[in-house]
Amino acid sequence: MIGISKLYFGTIEASDALRYQRGAHRRPVVVWNCTPKCNLACSHCYAAHEGAQSELSTEQALGVIDDLAAFGVPVVLFSGGEPFARADIRTLAAHAKAKGLRVTFSTNGTLIDDDCADWIRDLGVAYVGISIDGTEAVHDAFRRRPGAYALSLAAIRRLRDRGVKVGLRVTMTRTNVAAIPAIFELMRREKVPRICLYHLVYTGRGREIAATDLDHAEARAALETIIEETRRCFDSGFPVEVLTVDNACDGVALYMKMAKEGHPNAAKALELLRLNGGNSSGEGIACISWDGTVYPDQFWRNRPVGNVQERPFSEIWGNPPSGSLLDLLRHKKEHVKGRCRACRWLDICGGNFRARGEAVTGDMWGEDPTCYLTDEEIAEEGDAR
Question: Would you say 155 and 119 are in contact if contact means Cβ atoms under 8 Å apart?
Answer without folding.
Answer: no
